[in-house]
């Protein structure tokens, strides 16, 4: 019996790590709720987030001019530009 439980633990361990490291499951609910609230297709929201930030909530990007100076920054899942913060 212990061998069976130990084997089951080692089989489930990778799935546990994947579920903890992948927030996509919890976000599915958020996309549905936001889509319903704003009358937007949840698949469209998820597609935008996937393209903009690869589903990384802490995504950050700096936009530079030809000289290399930072002119604006993009933040978060939807990569909201710092221009809109002013």
CATH class category label: Mainly Alpha
How many domains? The number is 1
Determine the fraction of residues in helical runs and give it as a percent range: 40-55%
List the uncertain runs.
1-10, 15-20
CATH topology: Lysozyme
User: What sequence of helices (H) and strands (E) makes up the elements?
Assistant: HHHEEE
Radius of gyration: 20 Å
Distance between the termini: 64 Å
Q: What is the average per-residue confidence, as pLDDT, rounded to a whole number?
A: 78
Beta fraction: 15-25%
Main beta sheet: strand number and arrangement? 3 strands, antiparallel
Strands of the widest sheet, in order across it, are 1-2-3
Describe this structure in words.
- The chain contains 3 helices and 3 strands; from the N terminus they run αααβββ.
- It is an alpha+beta fold and 86 residues long.
- The protein has a single domain, classed as Orthogonal Bundle (Lysozyme).
- It has a 3-stranded antiparallel beta sheet with strand order 1-2-3, with no helix packed on it.
- Strand 2 and strand 3 form a beta hairpin.
- Helix 2 packs across helix 3.
- The longest helix is centred in the first third of the chain and has 20 residues.
- The chain starts with a helix and ends in a 5-residue tail after the last strand.
- The N terminus is likely disordered.
């Amino acid at each position: 019996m212990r061998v069976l439980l130990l084997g089951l633990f080692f089989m489930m361990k990778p799935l546990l790590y994947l579920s903890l490291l992948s927030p996509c499951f919890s976000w599915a609910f958020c996309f549905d709720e936001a889509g319903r609230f704003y009358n937007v297709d949840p698949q469209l929201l998820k597609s935008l987030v996937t393209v903009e930030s690869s589903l990384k909530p802490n995504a950050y990007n700096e936009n530079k001019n030809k000289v290399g100076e930072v002119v604006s920054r993009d933040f978060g899942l939807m990569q909201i530009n710092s221009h809109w913060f002013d």
